[in-house]
Amino acid sequence: MALLLKNAHIVDPSVNLDGVADVAIVDGRIEAVGENLTLDGAEVIDLTGKYLVPGLVDMHVHLRDPGLEHKEDIESGTRAAARGGFTGVCSMPNTKPVTDNGVTIEYVKSVAASCGHCRVYPSGAITKGLKGEIISEMGDMVAHGCVAFTDDGHGVQGAGMLRRAMDYGKMFGKVFMSHCQDEDLVGEGQVNEGVVSTRLGLLGWPAEGEELQIQRDIMIARLTGAKLHIQHISTACGLDMVRAAKAEGLPVTCEATPHHMFLTEDDITETYDTNLKVNPPLRTADDAAAIRAGVADGTVDAIVTDHAPHADWEKSREFELAPFGMIGLETSLALVNTHLVKTGQISYQRMVELMAIAPRQILGVDQVKIEAGSVADITVFDPEVRWTVGEDGFESRSQNSGFKGAEVCGRATDVFVGGVPTLRDGVVC
Ligand code: DOR
Ligand code: ZN
Fold first, then answer.
1. How far apart are CA 98 and CA 105, in angstroms?
2. C or N terminus of the chain, fewer CB within 10 Å?
């Protein structure tokens, strides 16, 4: 199959591209990049006015499959990913059963290969059943294609347990991704501890509950030499800890979500909108500003969604009983474009680093470049189109977005995975 993508504004800092050109694709690979290209027998797609970038990867996604398919499954979750402009996602292991051995990794990979709309890079649990008691079958999982280890949804509570897991698991060369939460300190905390938790009469989830484990995990990474990635960082002080670890030369990276950058605890009002209940919780306006500054200055390595689908009936419960999490795959690109690029805080080059290059690098999967020879995983978006979140529904099986009704700008129009279209003119293929 041959494709000729004409007249898009290509942005790929890894090959110093930032300008209008054509891309020729043959048999899943980029054949040529340049001006006035022609390609015999190719389907020609005019992309005038659109941006073309290396395929976006979201390295923090809950596909809920196996076992929680009433929220999402691999087909619907990767469908949402394609709609949002992603060519790949890293799936989280808090499935049912937990993805903590080679068989469950194999399940995720084979279902994704048969019905997925993007690549799925599975992560596997650090501890069996996410219980923090016994190291998972790391070698078995890696042999079956696991790209990273995480107990996401939980921090590994025992420092000795994390030390042993890192000491053992580092031989596989995979990154340890930490959800930082000291359960003893956080308890039943629902929202950020402070003025807002007091006003709403909800139990507080203090910043220190996250920061204690960020600092601890950095120290254990220093002790063991394992690669550490801090997930969904939400506080200014936590970010400073990562900044210091990087300055020291430790192999520490971190990620931030659109909801921790563009929403704050003040958005949770007397309506008790459970779509705004996330873990870690929405923090203060100062925290959100610090995370955005960290994205601009390079302290934050990757933007991820923590796409966490939950069914209507689950989110319709009282705030204390509703599960944590919001969906994000279909809004991330637009929110970043609207609030970071269009406001001049970051360039499209930096956006590509945050959403395409760094995620692949941290996960240790092959890079994609807009140059001859590369695999043709490509995202095309219209940077100007204005739309309202939720107005035309979601591809995800769940609808729990905290951004419903937000006016945003920019949306993926076309996506190619290995040269095969997964989104054409905004429609999932
Ligand atoms: O908000 C969240 N939801 N944070 C997590 O860490 C887990 C996730 C989920 O699985 O729903
Ligand atoms: Zn998490």
1. 10
2. N
Residue pair 327/401 in contact by the 8 Å Cβ criterion: yes
Short-list 87, 93, 4, CA closest to 42:
4
Q: Which of 65, 152, 314 is the best mutation target for the ligand 1 pocket, counting ligand atoms within 8 Å of the beta carbon and taking the most?
A: 152
Tell me the mean pLDDT in the region 105-111: 98
pTM greater than the 0.85 cutoff = yes
Find out if CATH 1.20.1600.10 is the number for domain 2-52+372-394+408-428. Answer: no
Can you give the residue ranges of every domain in the chain? 2-52+372-394+408-428, 55-363
Choose the residue to mutate in 90, 213, 279, 305 for probing ligand 1, maximizing ligand atoms within 8 Å of C-beta.
279
User: For 138-141, which contacts have Cβ atoms below 8 Å and span 24 or more sequence positions?
Assistant: 138/165, 138/168, 138/169, 138/172, 138/174, 139/172, 140/101, 140/102, 141/99, 141/100, 141/101, 141/102, 141/105
CA neighbor of 139 nearest in space, from 180, 178, 101, 177: 101
In angstroms, the CA 353 to CA 348 distance is 9
Query: What does the block give as tokens for 218?
Result: 């950095």
Q: Is any ligand 1 atom within 6 A of the Cβ of residue 324?
A: yes
| Closest among 322, 328, 200, 334 to 260, alpha carbons compared | 328
Q: CA torsion 307→313→317→323, rounded to 10°?
A: -30
Helix or strand holding residue 22 (H, E): strand 17-26
User: Given this model, what pLDDT does residue 139 score?
Assistant: 98
Fold of the domain built from segment(s) 55-363 = TIM Barrel (3.20.20)
Among candidate residues 73, 100, 287, 306, the one labeled active-site is 306
pLDDT of res. 1: 84
- Determine if ligand 1 sits within 6 Å of the CB of residue 68: no
**pLDDT tens per residue, range 13-30:** 999 999 999 999 999 999
Sequence-distant (≥ 6) Cβ neighbours of residue 321 within 8 angstroms: none
